[in-house]
Structures are given as structure tokens and as C-alpha cells.
Amino acid sequence: MPTKVPEDQYTAEPFVPDGGGLAALREAAAGCRGCPLHRDATQTVFGAGGADARVMLVGEQPGDQEDRQGRPFVGPAGKLLDRALEEAGMDPAEAYVTNAVKHFKFTQAEPRKRRVHKAPTLRETTACGPWLAAELAVVRPELIVVLGATAGKALLGSSFRVTQVRGTVLEEEIHGRPERLVPTVHPSSVLRADDREAAYQGLLSDLKVAARALG
């Protein structure tokens, strides 16, 4: 029986290679065992996009479709995000997209039933932090768009509240490097909203702030 690692010792750090580009990081992340989420997920879902991307979009974690396909933001929330980015004046194909947590966390009533997204804990998010730090170090984006509370807490600490700072340009030191960030809601929250059009317009407004910040 493998030794059970206490939750406060979860970390991806031993799995992150020294140096190397995104391809090396993606290959190494496929074998990450830094926290228990890898056990039930189909695969690691690493970031997608070029190392020269000017903007990095950081979400919470992969969803059901992402887990099956191995790419971030390919499900309904991703399609809505692409639409909003284009409408705001940013090309989705030129962005680097990733998640704070690289494995799908879910509950499932019984086999073959629908897998229901379950929010990662702060500890699981922290454990996955070295991957996000490595992505930032390689891509060195001009701007980070923070999609939702989990991503915000991963980058800015546990006191982050998306409702207080959404649609503003923040300047913070992240992993030892000055970064500019624009927080907004996660696109999946738009899909769940009672007034979806109003929620979409709010997301769009925030993304327009990001587009202006990029210049």
C-alpha cells in the first residue's frame, strides 16, 4: 500500500521539470501525482496556446469535456468565452488558456451517470500552483485574465473576492514577477445565471477592459 500523503503536504513541485518550454512542462504534467485528483480524472489537462501569447486566461479546473479531450475550455463555457473574447476585440487563438487546477474534480452518483463538477479545495489549488508558476515563467504574458474566484485565490491569495475587483486592472507581484491582471467571472457562471444575457454583458464589459489594457 502506498503511503497516504497528508493533505497539507500535497504539492506538484517534485513533478515540475527545471527549465524546458511548454512542451516539456506538458509532458511532465501528464505524470503528475502531486495530489489525489489524478486518481479519478481521465488525464491531466494542461494549458494550450503559444509561449509568445500576450494574454493568459486562467480558469478554475477542467470540466467533463476538457477531461475527455485533454484540452482546456473546449466545452460550453469555453465556446462562450471564445465568443466574448472575439466580441471584446481579442483573438482567442492568440491567447494562452489554462486552469489553476489541472485535473477534473467531480462527484458521480454511480458509474455511467453524469459526472458533476466539484470545486477544488484551496489545498488542491495550492498543490497545483507550481504548474501555473511554470507556465507564467515560460509565457511571460503582458496581461492575465483571471476567470473566477478559484483562479483569483490561486494567484492573489485566499482573501480574493471577484465581485470586489472584477473589471479593474490590478498590478501585483505573482511568483516573484510583476503582473497586470484583470479579474472577471468564470464563463460557466454566465451559463448558470438566471439572467444569462445580463451576465454575459458583464463578462464582455470586463474583457473589454482587458482588451484596452493590452492596447
Any key phrases for this structure?
5-stranded mixed sheet; 215 residues; globular; 8 helices; two-stranded antiparallel sheet; alpha/beta
- What is the H/E order? HEHHEEEHEHHEEHH
Mean pLDDT: 94
Helix content: 25-40%
Q: DSSP strand (E) fraction?
A: 5-15%
Low-pLDDT runs of 5+ residues are none
Spatial shape: globular
Alpha-beta content class: alpha/beta
Strand order of the largest sheet: 2-1-5-7-6
How many helices? 8
Distance between the termini: 55 Å
Compute the CA-based radius of gyration.
Answer: 17 Å
- Total beta strand runs: 7
Overview of the structural elements:
It is built from 8 helices and 7 strands, in the order H-E-H-H-E-E-E-H-E-H-H-E-E-H-H. The protein has 215 residues and is an alpha/beta fold. The strands form 2 sheets. A 5-stranded mixed sheet has the order 2-1-5-7-6. A hairpin with a 2-residue loop joins strand 6 and strand 7. Helix 3 crosses helix 8 and helix 4 packs across helix 5. The model has no long low-confidence stretch (mean pLDDT 94).
SSE layout and pairing:
Blueprint: H1 22-29, E1 55-59, H2 64-69, H3 76-88, E2 96-99, E3 106-107, E4 116-117, H4 122-139, E5 143-147, H5 149-156, H6 162-165, E6 170-174, E7 177-184, H7 187-192, H8 196-214
Parallel strand pairs: 1-2, 1-5, 5-7
Antiparallel strand pairs: 3-4, 6-7
